[in-house]
Amino acid sequence: MKPLLSFSAAVDAICAFVGKAVSWLILATVLVSAGNAIVRKAFDYSSNGWLELQWYLFGAVFLLAAAYTLQRNEHIRIDILSSRLSKRTRDWIDLVCFVVMLLPFTALIVYEAVPNVLTSFRQQEMSMNAGGLIIWPAKALILAAFVLLFLQCLSEIIKRIGVLNDAIADPTPEMHTHPANEDMILEDKPGA
């Protein structure tokens, strides 16, 4: 189990680094968007390339942060149901869903994306919009994101098995609700 846990820790470190690094692309997206709007209003000039760059940057954040979000256990859940289950039951549900759904899905997307990205790169595929950007980097982002998500899914499977076998402490402590919802729950409780 030790080599698997080492692999899991390495994947966690990579996904955390990428997830935190791409958060800076939000600032870049805002700056590009603001600059594009100012140039469009002040100089009556616009470019499809700048608009597509905004989409690429936002897409990079959304896609590349997905594995980090999974690692942090921040994906949306149906809290009204899962909060009524024991932590062990939720770990089993996570393990089964990772193995049966997420792992095959991410593997399929990676399998389908590789030839698509390679073809787009070889052809230097361009946007159909006038002044648009090349498309292969956006397609490569999809591939990179799903490779990271696949690896993080493997890491989560390893950690869930470790937790269920009492080989490791639970890296995702029990949380009945998302921290953002705690204020709403406190407001509903009498005397809070």
Automatic annotation (TrEMBL):
The keyword Cell inner membrane applies. GO terms for cellular component: plasma membrane. Pfam families: DctQ. Its main location: membrane. Residues 172-192 are annotated as: Disordered. The complex comprises the extracytoplasmic solute receptor protein and the two transmembrane proteins. This is TRAP transporter small permease protein. It comes from Faunimonas pinastri.
